[in-house]
Design goal:
The structure holds two protein chains of two kinds. Chain A is mostly beta strands. Chain A has no helices and eleven strands. In chain A, strands 2, 4, 5, 6, 9, 10 and 11 form a seven-stranded mixed β-sheet that branches. A four-stranded antiparallel β-sheet of chain A has the order 1-3-8-7, with no helix packed on it. Chain B is mostly beta strands. Classes of the chains: A mainly beta, B mainly beta.
Chain lengths: 111, 111
């Protein structure tokens, strides 16, 4: 059963803590993406990766970091430097240049 | 100016009605266009790609007007299950893999 999985579904973090959001896909897609969605706003691109061991900053990369050591996995770390991290985080994957498919998302709340 | 602009709505229509959404994009070199559907607190899911000649999928019709830089989505015979937020999505160019998302148009179909 092919698809994209994200974990956890809900995550609570204290201020000053780093947290890592998981994203795994078994669609054999080369490209993977991280977006953030806030109420009343469109999705905003945080980071994307077109190939293993390579990634680029998106529009709002400050306070976030990623790695792409395996084709299937693209974890996102939300660092303490991110000033307003409470949001809905969505991971996506695609064949480069084609439509993107999304995971179910992680809701991060900073307490 | 935003890359992609949509009327946020909400559009409240009775069952069986026909409803249309428009979306404008700013980059005239944009190559690919999509409509995604997003249910409340869920991930976006691809509804349909938009082709230059226009395309239809059951009750849904998408059209592209490159000269005026807008795309449209028409839903005929609205069902209660069509209630969702519809996201207009634009791929800026052949060399880019990232997508630009509109903020979405909220549709509620009323019994």
């Amino acid at each position: 059963d092919g698809g994209i999985t994200q974990s956890p579904k809900y995550l609570f973090r204290k201020e000053g803590q780093n947290v890592t959001l998981s994203c795994e896909q078994n669609l054999n897609h080369d490209a993977m993406y991280w977006y953030r969605q806030d109420p009343g706003q469109g999705l905003r691109l945080i980071y994307y990766s077109q190939i293993v061991n390579d990634f680029q900053k998106g529009d709002i990369a400050e306070g976030y970091s990623v790695s792409r050591e395996k084709k299937e996995s693209f974890p996102l770390t939300v660092t303490s430097a991110q000033k307003n991290p409470t949001a809905f985080y969505l991971c996506a994957s695609s064949i480069p240049g084609y439509e993107q498919f999304f995971g179910p998302g992680t809701r991060l709340t900073v307490l | 100016r935003k890359e992609v602009e949509q009327d946020p709505g909400p559009f409240n229509v009775p069952e069986g009605a026909t409803v249309a959404f428009n979306c404008t994009y700013s980059n005239s070199a944009s190559q690919s266009f999509f409509w995604y559907r997003q249910d409340c607190r869920k991930e976006p899911k691809l509804l349909m790609s938009v082709y230059s000649s226009g395309n239809e999928d059951g009750r849904f019709t998408a059209q592209l007007n490159r000269a005026s830089q807008y795309i449209s989505l028409l839903i005929r015979d609205s069902k209660l299950s069509d209630s969702a937020t519809y996201l207009c999505v634009v791929k800026p160019g052949t060399g880019a893999n990232n997508l630009f998302f509109g903020t979405g148009t909220r549709l509620t179909v009323i019994p």
